[in-house]
Amino acid sequence: MPLTLLLGPANCGKVAQLFDRFAEQVDAGAAPTLVVPTRPDVELAERDLLARRSAVLGGMIGTFEDLFERVLERCGEPSAALATLPRRLVLEQVVREAGLDQLAGPSRFAGFVDGLGRMFNDLAGSAPPELLERRLAAFAEPGRRLELAVLHGAFRARLAELGIRDRAGGHGRAAELLETRLEAWDDSPVFAYGFEDMSGVQLAALRALAARCPVMVSLPYEPGRPALAAVRPAAAALTDGPHELVELPPADHVDSPALRHLERTLFDERDAPTPPERDGSIVLLEACGVRGVADQVAFEALALLRQGIAAEQIAVLATDSGRWRLALESAFAALDVPIDVDAQVGLGETAFGQALLGLLRFAWFDGDRADLFRFLRSPFSGVPRATVDYAEGRLRGRGALRHDEVQGLLEELDYARLLAAPDRLAASADPAAAVGDQLRRMSASAAGLTANRLNGAGEAHAAALRATLRTLEQLAGVVGLGLEPLDRVGVAGQLERTVFRPYNGGAGRVQALDLRRARTRRFQAVFVLGLEEGGLPGPARENPFLSAEEAGALGVSRLEPLERDRHLFYTAVTRPWRNLFLCRQAADEDGRLLEPSPFLEDVVRSVGEDGVELRRRAIGDLTHPLEQAPSERERQRALARELRTRPEWAAAVADHHGWTRKLERARLAYRRRPQLRNATVLAALAAQERFSVTELEKFAECSSAWFVERFLQPGEIDYQFGPKETGSVAHATLHKFHERMPSELGVERLTEHELPVAVELMRRCLQDSLGGVRIPAGVAGRAQIRRLERDLEGFLASEATFDSPLVPRDYEVRFGTKTSRPDLQQGLRLDGFAVSGTIDRIDRDPGMSARGAVWDYKTGKGARSAKQIETERKLQLPLYILVARDMLGIEPVAGLYRALGGERRARGMAVEGEMDGVMGNDRMQPELFWAQVDRAVGYANDIVARIRSGAVHHDPISGSCPEWCLCQAGGICRVAK
Question: Is the pTM of this model over 0.85?
């Protein structure tokens, strides 16, 4: 009997007629089969049928996979298919044993097996097994082609040995049985719809069924329509034999004349009839970046919801919804609009997966602290948050990062219970069973043992759990195939590859779908994403294994890319009843302009420029107009903007809604004086009588940065052996070295002759200084110590060659602190306050005169000249010079910096004729020397006066934030730069 082909454009009633025929067959006592593209389409078809009549008793609705399984069962052949994971393992084994030559190089990469599996699926779907074997025999020329054919034959032979088929092979075998076995099918009618691009096996199955029973196939096709050209190969294949054509005319299955006109004329270059007047049904949305488009879509979707359209009647369509998932979920969540994004998600992209994989990395592969606490901080660990916080704080404070450090310290701190989960996993000899046990524990910890209804987060966790359990079930079946059980690396690798669709398609949610999965759906409003260059039309999808010519020789059908994308776009624009939103990025996230898709030009050509309403949201549009603001927060932001032009009106609106306080804060945000105003803080500062030299210098560099460090006190949680710790160790080492040098080296001043033994002494002093310091373990810690050792060696070399009449005598001279000498505890008295600090070293005249020089060591490479000391308000050396004169009775002739790294030159300020080793630019006449010291005293007095008054500004002296602020405080500023 002939095959009936039901043809017509989109929305012309083909599916309705198909459903009527299906119901008629049920009423006649037959058992018809309705074939739909995907599993979600099965439920949709059932709902559609039940909407037409109260009950449908009989028949079956399923996918082609269900039909093929039924054929295999009728013929007594096993219908169970090899799961995805075991199939990949079999492929890996086949590739390892194949002895490849030309493909040996590519086969080393992980993606080779995945790509090979996809190619084998394409081959199995192109033709029944017998025909495919003949094609492969003709294809297998010596070289790469022969190796591909050998791999395919070895894979099929391996499956035959195991007595099982993969899914694609089962489909091909079922199509072959329909052609050769009488019992493969009876006279039950078959109906199919939603298949614009059927595979060779599916086409062969329909032709074979048509010889046994009534078959009706619905295709969206009209001869000569460019928009439907992609369906032409399927229509030609089904009409290549006895057939009956039923062609339906266009119908008014839309609520908008503009949408009806667009369907009839899209991509048609012939003279089209005059388009109808614009009715607002077609809107072009333009925004910048993926997130900008997502925000605009969410805003428009909220407006549609407020108009009364149900959320499930709004769809967001894209060629790849996974690419848009995060942006759409964030944008819709910001407006409290529920959305389901039908996209494949990797296990590692979910909170559940991150916790599980982090735990496995720590337990099996010596992961670090972050891996363990990724699990412990999740709701799946069952550990109280306070316990986790305290334990992590102790680990961070001690700088414990590596696996052995974390494990040892937790046991030392009596927190071994936090290691219970990784210890169980590490002790188990069966990694897959251990993961299964851990999954049950994680599920119980997160959801408990009650049967309460899950919220959105709980549903996402449950979906990830189900996907993980499916992977473990597949792993359990590996042993039954004669394959070696997977070790820890294999189990973890397969879990990382686990993907699933958390989409539930429930009512009350906006639906975000791939274009291909929306072919059988209708909505009130549709948003089509990706209408910019590189989106639609997209690039050709190349097969790395087969060229277009080779694919044609093997019968692997490939749609012409432009025809394919035209059909996808045509399908998208014919999904809505009322509203069509075409969305494009005008620029990407980096501001690069993007050209519009040529499909937009086709839309404009179809309905006219006046037929498309443009709504643009530029990158600078940070707020919505007040009347369009989608949420209360956005309305408040819009009202704050109105303050610039209509302050009285904005204040009245704010008063009406109870937003006066928020609006006033917004109004004063940029008018506040950068001034400390808290009475308690000002009183404490006014009462402070002692300031350290370092504190005064930091205030001089930037008072805002000083405020951040002094009052906000930001810092790293983790212990770090950074510049501060390095400087402390270096100072301690040099102190010990100079104290021991006279007794162990027999000299007061180092020369090049003593340098070799001096270096050995310095190394011993360094080891003594490191005794009470925590050094990062591993290569990084050893590298830091070696770098410090090289800096100190270079410092000694520069000391040995420095020309100075003075010798080191005093070290770590503290003043103004409780640990200072009694005569120095009062500090350096200036104008109503005292200064404290520590002089690293003081050199004196061995001839017993009062002459001397103060030194300050600098870790790193920076040492300021006399001019820089003046311009950058560096107070250490000038005030140290004053301390030496007024408190120690020394006649200072120099104040010098010595950097431990870089060129290690002595820089600073010196009296002319006293220190020949100092650079010429740093020497000055005595009166200029003391005048600079006096100016430094004046700077210190001014700084303390500003501190006591609370005058804090963003006032970096060099025009850019101090390096210490950027490193330690993140460059936090009280006012905008």
Answer: no
